[in-house]
Amino acid sequence: MVDTHPALALRAELYHALAEVLVPPALWMTQPGMAWPLYEAVQALRPFSNSAQQAAETLTSIGTETEQERLARYEAVFMGNGRPRLWLYESMMVNGRLL
């Protein structure tokens, strides 16, 4: 049986869009945050979640950048030296330790 709860379906859309963000930058990422595919899902989740409210505000603040500018920002977050990889931060949050 498939759960048709709207918040769950919206979260699935959001996770799909976030997965796209974690691969080399998609061309849509050069557009302002309100044009990103995940923006509509975040907007729809606002009534269900304070985190979605904050995410919507953050996405609204993201402006247009060239592909080179966005790639440089992406590389600074995901490929920077001297910092644990992003997935390690999740590990620390979930498990209380890196790894």
In total, the number of domains comes to 2
Low-confidence stretches: none
Return the structural class: mainly alpha
- Strand content is under 5%
Instruction: Give the strand tally.
Output: 0
> What's the alpha carbon Rg, rounded to whole Å?
15 Å
Order of helices and strands: HHHHH
Helical proportion? 55-70%
- Assembly form of the protein: single chain
Distance between the termini: 35 Å
| Continuous helix count | 5
The backbone outline, from C-alpha atoms, is globular
Mean pLDDT: 77
Q: Tell me about the largest β-sheet.
A: none
List the helices and strands and how they pair.
Elements: H1 6-21, H2 37-45, H3 50-61, H4 67-78, H5 86-95
Helix pairs in contact: 1-2, 2-3
Structure characterization notes:
The protein is mostly helical. The termini are far apart. The chain has helices at 6-21, 37-45, 50-61, 67-78, 86-95. The model has no long low-confidence stretch (mean pLDDT 77). It has 2 domains: 1-64, no CATH class; 65-99, no CATH class.
Tags for this model:
99 residues, mainly alpha, 5 helices, 60% helix
In short:
By secondary structure, this protein is mainly alpha-helical. The chain contains 5 helices and no strands.
